[in-house]
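Components:
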Amino acid sequence: MSYLDGVRQRRRRLAEAFVARGTPSLWTLAPFVERGMGDDEVTAVVERVLGALRGGPFEVLPAMLLYCRWAERLPPAACRLVRRFFTDGVLERGNTENHWLMYYAGNLLAAECFGEEAALWNGLPPAAVHGEARRWILGMIRRTATIGHHEYDSPGYMAEHVVPLAGLAVYATDAEVRTMATKVLTLLFADMALEYFHGAWVGGHSREGYRQNTWTYVGPVQGLFYLYFEEEFDPERHLQGFTCPLTAMDYAPPEVVIRLGRERPYPAVVKKTKAPRSIYRHVDRPAAPVRKYTYLSRSFALGSTQLGLPGAPAAPIDLVSWDLSWPAAKQQGIIVAAHPYADPGRFSAFLSCLPQLAERAIATDKPYLQYPDRLFGASPYERMVQHEGTIIVGYRIPPTDRRPYVNLFLPKGLAYHEAGGWIAADAGGFFVAVYPVGSYRWLEIREATRAHLLVREADLVDGWLLRIHSLTAGLVLEAVEASACPSFDAFVHARAAAPPELSRWQTDGILAASSTGGSRLELRYDGVHRIDDEPVDYDSYPLYAAPGVTAALGDGIVRFEHDGEELVVDFEIEPGGSMLPMRSIG
Amino acid sequence: MADTHAPWLCGADGLYTSTDGITWSRSGTFDFPVHGLAHLHGGIAVATTNGLWLAPEGRGRWRQLHDETLTEVLALIVSHTWGIVAASPYGIATATVDEHGAHRWHSHTEELPVKQRFTNALAAVPGTVDRWVAGTEWGVLVCEEGGRRVEPTNLAGTPVRAFCTAGGRILAGTDRRGVWASEDGRSWRPFGTGAEGTAVFSIAAAESTFLAGSEAGVLAFDGKAWDRVGPRIAVTAVAAAPETGGAWLAGATPGGLWRSDDEGLRWYQVMRTESVRAIAAPAQGEAV
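Structure:
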């Protein structure tokens, strides 16, 4: 079966699964309409979501995707409701990049479909609404092609980028919007493919919050992996409502991009540059570009990030900077650590609410953002250097910090050994050893979706929690393929014989360690990082550097090559042209 | 010109109006968080978390005044020369109108350091033509030439979140450095004592005094010192209307809208909407 035939087949299967599950939402209504749902039922769903004539990106986009696909089959009452939503509604733009993309994509499509109206919901004529949406969408695409995606590599929110862009690529009548949306979709799928690993998305993520970053398979991106990366169907993973509109769209990313993820030679190093974080308060300078490094070995993946943050209290709240991942059951395939930085300034650094009121305002709705056991979210005091399967992470936490410790998560499914300060485990295909820097306590972490009275089934987080109580906490971790070592005992022995170099960490901020393969990594806190005495030049990172992909920063030309097949995506960026200013968070 | 028929305005989650300052009703269906208000001919310019809007007289549909570059609008003033001047986390912006009647915004402080760019408050300097002061996370900046020329002042090293212009001078509210005053916008001096232990979010002139809305509640100025009166709420908006019986209004985040009819001795809630971020007394409205 050809790639495209396979995509079509999986679209149908996914659509059927949504219908079989029942209870349609505006996001999942399309397959029900296609399969002959009654007019009254269809109208009832549309009425339930749009009837109040107010909504945000999560209503604006699916309303127009449904209308564009099935306007001829929708009952007239449902069509009138959609139109009225866009002429008489109160619509919100939201504040993240995916919000703005869904909002502007929906508004652009509405301006095209309802162009004969004198004014749309915001009192402006459709031409003005279209013009604003077009400027933002094209500006966002050019920015992504030039300096990297802003809300980068998010398992939770990539679907909310792909779906609106696919909607534009398929339904927009504006030819340039269609073309550019198609191009940037190729880039976003490349982002996924380069770090696609046995059904998971490994490496650092701009947003992987909501206490799911110890899971193996996270977020609506799983629906995209099923549709385009030929996963075996698993309803629990793949039935993601936000991806359902794709089942009704004739869109598929270029096969060569998908093959980069599915047919990768191991080991592979992937380097990416991403747009700086949005920090607009409490600091003097803006953030620097984000640099990602991900090492994919046959049995595991280790990814890390140079965040470019401008200093405390800038610390994006959903960000996951590094982790070790491998194919395993839920909560059994991740090692990750975080300083659970809790200064309220981390909220007001990128949200406009008053700093004095921000913590209560945000953490009342999302209390887990301030939990002491938190395992996600950036810390302004975290630094790291990685080389292949080895990473050093170091923290220098001020004495006044609310959380003078680091949380290290270990899965319960491994049997651990301790030797010379290293905690090692045989994970089957590979061996891993982690050395906590600082005194630690071995605790348990259990968090549940339903925990009104008791945490019975710890479905959110369930594992060992090593709390490293030190203002200068840190860790060294190494993972190696089992086939590269004579035995697990030999690996443990080798690690125990080579402790990290800690003597200058307290005094000079220098933490170093050697891998069992003989490479020496040196982390100078706020200084130069070195691998085998050579400085690491993060500024030289291109947009992409990975097997099969080359792209410089700034010129908007990306080359893909795999197995004799070549694809060049040229965004035709004008040299020296102005860039759309970043106004959303993420 | 002053519009003495203007009602009380209150910015909460949506725009609320009142003729007596006691009974309030929401104007229109929009419920965006409102941070600032200004009278225009034909309506009220409303600064919100979701952009800038024109709320027409009566209950008509709001009209969008922002574009894709103007996002959370925290304050605004109306200039005879430059039209609406908008303050946001990304700085100060003015607009032109395109062929479709849509506003296109131009940021004038994009390149400033991050703290100087984030603008909480704006005020016109009395007796000048288009000189403004901008209350930023860094302190006060003086802006001229439509925001193209920006200079620092001696009120620096603290966020400035509020201005009040009265009697030929400007008062500025800071975070834990009290209230400051200036005649020309460039040279600032402390104005009274007692507000240094809190953050001042709003300032208003009352009949014989000044009021400050602070993290600790309402502060009333007795000529020398700021003294706290009323409930211990975070007062993010404060107003007084000497012409309409001397009522003091205080908007809290959270806590709703409170009123005192006896110069702060007793307070009562007149609107229990969660958060109030802006209040304009009837005489404060100036239509341009």
